[in-house]
Amino acid sequence: MSNFVFVLDKDKQPLDPTHPAKARKLLKAGRASVFRRYPFTIIMQDLEVKNCVTHNHQLKIDPGSRTTGLAIVQGNRVLWGAELIHRGSQIRDALTSRRQLRRSRRSRKTRYRKPRFLNRKRREGWLPPSLQSRVDNTMTWVKRLQKFCPIQGISQELVRFDLQKLENPEISGIQYQQGQLQGYEVREYLLEKWGRKCAYCGVDDTPLEIEHIKPRSKGGSNRISNLTLACHECNQSKGNQEITDFLSGKPDLLKRVQSQAKKPLADATAVNATRWKLYESLKSTELSVETGSGGLTKFNRTQRGLSKTHCLDASCVGKSTPENLKVKTRKPLVIKSKGHGRRQRCRTDRFGFPKSHAPREKFFQGFQTGEICKAIIPKGKHQGVYVGRIAIRFRPSFRMSIKNKKPFDVHPKYLKTVHKADGYEYEI
To answer: Which of 72, 148, 153, 375 could form a disulfide with 288 if both were Cys (CB 3.0 to 4.6 A apart)?
Structure first.
C-alpha cells in the first residue's frame, strides 16, 4: 500500500490525509484536483477547514548520516513515510576539488583567488556545508509537510547512543542492569561500529551476538573497545581463546579487528552534531518537540515486530510511540537531494584549466534542469511514453533520465511538465 494522500481545502489549508482510493473517487467526481505530484496532494473545490474535523498528527524524524527517515503518525496509525537521501558527500567532494584547484594555481604563480581565511569569522553555531545541508534538507521537508498536513508535534531521535553509557561503560546497578532498555544502547552502538556484520567471517543478515575480544575469563572487561559482534558459529569457535590465537592463521583479519576495535565512530559523532543543530531549528517551528535515543527507537521497533527501514525507525522514535502501531503504508516516498545547480560559470578540466563556459540563463523554452516531465514520443528509436527528469540544453535537444534506462535525447515539443524543479528527485 502506498502513502496516504495529503488534502487541502479550497483556501489551501491542510485537512486530514485520506486513503488513495478515496482520493481517486474525489478526483474522478470533480470535487478535487491535483495540487502537487510529490508528495501527492489534492485540493478540494468545495470544502473549508471550518466545516471539517481535523485530528492531531505527529511528525517523527530519524536523522541519519546518509538517509533521514520521516513518518507521520495519527493515533496508532502510520499514514505517510519517506526516506530523505542527503548529498553531504557530494558537497564535500566539490569543496575539496575547488580547494585543490585554487591551491594548484597559487603554486603555478598564475591568476588565482587569494585565500581569505585570515579575515573571515564563522558565525555562532557554524557547521561545515556538508553537515549543514543535512539540517537544511530536513527543515525544508518539515516546513513543507506542515503546509500539507495538520501537524501538532514533532518527535526527533536526538542522540544515536546514550552518552552516559558510552562514557561510563562499567556503570552498574538498577540504572542499566535492570529495566527495559538493558543492553539496547550498547548493542546499537556495536551494530553501527561493526557494520552489522560478523567481525570474524563477515556474514550478515543473521543474528549476531556480543563477543568479548579479550575473554572475561582472562581479564577482559565490558568496555566498548573490548566488544565486537560475531555470529553464533564464530562465537562458539572462539570460546575463551585470545584473539591472537583464534586468528593466528589470518594476520590481516587480526590487524583489521584490532584497529577497528579502537576506532571511534567519527560518522556518528558528526551526525550527533547535526542532530543538535536540527533540534534547535525544530524548536523554532513553535511545535512541541519530543526527543529520544537510538536505543529507545530500536527497542520500540523490536517490541512491535517491525522490520528495519529508515521510515519504520522514524515511526518508532520517542516515548509517544503507541503500543499497537499499525503501518498503513508499505512504500515510502524516496526523496533524493539533487541541489539547485551550481553558480560556477567556468568549467575546468582535471588540471584546473578552463575548458567551457556555462550560460547564465537557467530556463530554455519554458523548461529547467531538474524538472520531472512526461514525454510522448510518436516515432523513432525511443517511441513511447516516458516520465523522467530532464537536463536542458540551449538547443531543442534535452537529456532525459529514467530509472533502469540509459539517458536519451528528446525534443522539448514532446515534453509536458509534471513536477517543477525543487532540488529533489523522487521515487516510489
So the answer is: 153
